[in-house]
Specification:
This protein has helices at 5-18, 22-35, 40-52, 56-69, 74-86, 92-102, 106-118, 125-134, 140-147. With 149 residues, it is mainly alpha-helical. It has a domain at 1-73: Alpha Horseshoe (Serine Threonine Protein Phosphatase 5, Tetratricopeptide repeat), CATH 1.25.40.10. 38% of the residues are buried. It holds the Pfam family TPR_1.
């Protein structure tokens, strides 16, 4: 197999994704991975498509592989955490904590706060919401008003 074939499949997948051909894009990302099993973007993009299709367990597998290949890949860590949280996997908190350690963004703090809220954790989600707002993530303001009166 010519390893460069992965580029053709990857580019086809990107085009199909733009055309909202989700299944076709997933197939082509899979082909790209078949030719180049270390192509991180193929795992990440395929995982994102699966996540958006609510195939959370399948998406987690793709994010796991992307993270194995690049342990500091922020989008994969965040999206894996979101998928885990959605299916009730409490290890999502590990991903949100790791994300905050690597990149303490407002979105990361909001994701952890929402995890705390949805799982009735006693940790101070209000401090995470305040931190998210202070970092300029305005979307957290509505949650701050709702949960931290």
């Amino acid at each position: 197999m010519d390893k460069n074939n992965y580029k053709a499949y990857y580019n086809k997948a990107l085009i199909k994704e733009q055309l909202n051909d989700v299944n076709g894009a997933i197939i082509d990302y899979s082909k790209a991975i078949e030719f180049e099993p270390k192509h991180i973007s193929s795992y990440l993009n395929r995982g994102n498509l699966k996540m958006n299709a609510e195939k959370y367990s399948e998406a987690i597998k793709d994010f796991n592989k992307a993270i194995t290949l690049n342990p500091t890949l922020l989008q994969a860590i965040q999206n894996r955490g979101i998928c885990k949280a959605t299916i009730g996997d409490k290890t999502a908190l590990d991903d949100f904590n790791r994300l905050i350690t690597l990149d303490p963004s407002g979105e990361a703090y909001l994701n952890r706060a929402l995890f705390y809220i949805n799982n009735n954790y006693k940790q101070d989600y209000c401090s995470d919401l305040r931190k998210a707002v202070s970092l300029g993530f305005d979307h957290a303001k509505e949650f701050l008003k709702q949960y931290c009166k």
